[in-house]
Amino acid sequence: MRLAHLHLPHTTPFSRVSHLQQTLTTRLLTHKKLASPGSISSQEPSNPSATLSKTPPSPPDPTIITFTPNPVYTTGRRDLPPSNTSPPSTTNPILSLPPALEPIRSLFTPDGTKPAKAEYHPTLRGGQTTYHGPGQMVAYTILDLKRLGLTPRCHIRVLENSVIDLLKSYGVEGFTTEDPGVWVNPVSGSRSASGSALQPRKITAVGVHLRRNISSFGIGLNVTDEPMWFFKQIVACGLEGKEATSLQGVGVPGLEVGDVAAAFVEKFVSRVNADFACGENSLGEKIDEVYQVREEDLLNSV
Amino acid sequence: MSSVARAIRPFASRVLSQKPLASACQVSPAFRFPRGTRSFSQSPLSQLKKYTESHEWIELADGGKTAKIGITEYAAHSLGDVVFVELPEVDLEIVAGEPVGAVESVKSASDVLSPVAGKVIKGNSILEDKAKTINESPEGEGWIAEIEVADVAELDALLDEAAYKETIDA
């Protein structure tokens, strides 16, 4: 199997990636519906694009999108009111903020001549409120877990382990704790806002959405300290008293997001290909090749 | 379609009163009717509890008009510890194959898709306080939604237990 890699080189609106991701997810789901006669697909596809496409001979390639969005706070399912089994509405979301973001309402409101400091996007991923923005490498994996032979738990572990491998290549030791995500120990002597110098700090957030084993969303890795101010405004991921850090924060400055993204994809592929150990079934396909795609290739290839 | 429901009801209640027999009367896994064939001679027993390839189960209640929906043992196990369950709103009209809720474990939120069309009667409020009930009893106490089934015949197209087991082992 081949893995398509789309890297968006410039800081981009979150909605653009969100749309791309939706398109790719729909494509995989449509294929799955058409390809599984024993499933509940006897119903009309609810998505109009699904009716247009004909049965593809082989499943669409899995895709990984790496990007850096404009400052955006995203919420997961747990933070939303309980009416969200459908995709988020397109009406102005600023009017109804989840409780977690209520204290920082002013960030989302344009102030006189100045634009709003950040956007807000509710999502259907797992995990709680987090921040994405400049200085961060966000990687979303849109793939059929079944085809890769990964269970949902396993998939999260592959994402976390890929980040840990990546950190290692920069000489940083990352680890998982009882809290989700990837953590690092602060470098000795670094100052701490709450005197918690010895506490691990979060360098990567993880959150995934699954429908029929098709995954979307993924990870956000802090490369520079630029996102730190935004993290301090919220209790990220519902973890009170835990601080965030970045590669720069643990002594690896000067990294380009694009380089980090390319390295992450490499680690991800090795993990997928090697980590059958954590899957109960080892029947997943391997990733033989990664190829670069452009946004227009992805959108036009239906 | 209401005639279908009427036809099935006596079967259902009869079957419910002798439940232990159910496992002895499974339809052979290789024996599946093509979609669209609505044969009730297949086995009325297999219509009581059905499965989807996306690991949901649906069980018709006595009377055959309402059903409970949940996720399978296999799904609960592969998700791991469930920390949050999103329940559907009462009266939500649902379409087969569309979400009727979600189950969230360590950072993965999985949609729960409704096996058939219908209308939500209620969500299982036990899960609001104790999401882990899904892990403890996914096909019992940990049901997710109770719905009014629009067309009972829709269950026919779903997998019976043996066919579902086959999809897991495949």
TrEMBL record, chain A:
Binding site for substrate: R125, G126, G127, Q128, T129, T130, Y131, H132, A205, V206, G207, G218, I219, G220
Keywords attached to this entry: Acyltransferase, Transferase
Region (Disordered) residue spans: 35-129
Pathway as given in its UniProt record: Protein modification; protein lipoylation via endogenous pathway; protein N(6)-(lipoyl)lysine from octanoyl-[acyl-carrier-protein]: step 1/2
Low complexity bias (residue ranges): 81-99
InterPro entries reported for this sequence: aa-tRNA-synth_II/BPL/LPL, BPL_LPL_catalytic, Octanoyltransferase, Octanoyltransferase_CS
GO MF entries: lipoyl(octanoyl) transferase activity
Swiss-Prot/TrEMBL site (Lowers pKa of active site Cys) positions: K202
Active-site residues, as the UniProt record annotates them: C237
Ranges for domain BPL/LPL catalytic: 58-276
Reactions it catalyzes: octanoyl-[ACP] + L-lysyl-[protein] = N(6)-octanoyl-L-lysyl-[protein] + holo-[ACP] + H(+)
EC number per UniProt: 2.3.1.181
Comp. bias (Polar residues): 38-54
Organism superkingdom: Eukaryota
Keyword hit for tRNA processing: no
Any Pfam family hit: LplA-B_cat
Protein function: Catalyzes the transfer of endogenously produced octanoic acid from octanoyl-acyl-carrier-protein onto the lipoyl domains of lipoate-dependent enzymes. Lipoyl-ACP can also act as a substrate although octanoyl-ACP is likely to be the physiological substrate.
Similarity annotation: Belongs to the LipB family.
UniProt name for this protein: Octanoyltransferase
Organism field: Penicillium rubens (strain ATCC 28089 / DSM 1075 / NRRL 1951 / Wisconsin 54-1255)
UniProtKB/TrEMBL annotation, chain B:
Cofactor(s) listed: (R)-lipoate
Stored PROSITE patterns: BIOTINYL_LIPOYL (PS50968), LIPOYL (PS00189)
Compartments (UniProt record): Mitochondrion
Gene3D superfamilies reported for this sequence: 2.40.50.100
Cofactor note: Binds 1 lipoyl cofactor covalently.
Predominant location: mitochondrion
Alphabetic keyword roster: Lipoyl, Mitochondrion, Transit peptide
First and last residue of the signal peptide: none
Any one cellular-component term (Gene Ontology): glycine cleavage complex
CDD domains: GCS_H
Swiss-Prot/TrEMBL GO biological process terms: glycine decarboxylation via glycine cleavage system; protein lipoylation
Domain Lipoyl-binding: 66-148
Location of N6-lipoyllysine modifications: K107
Recorded family membership: Belongs to the GcvH family.
Role, per record: The H protein shuttles the methylamine group of glycine from the P protein to the T protein.
Quaternary structure and interacting proteins, as annotated: The glycine cleavage system is composed of four proteins: P, T, L and H.
Annotated protein name in UniProt: Glycine cleavage system H protein
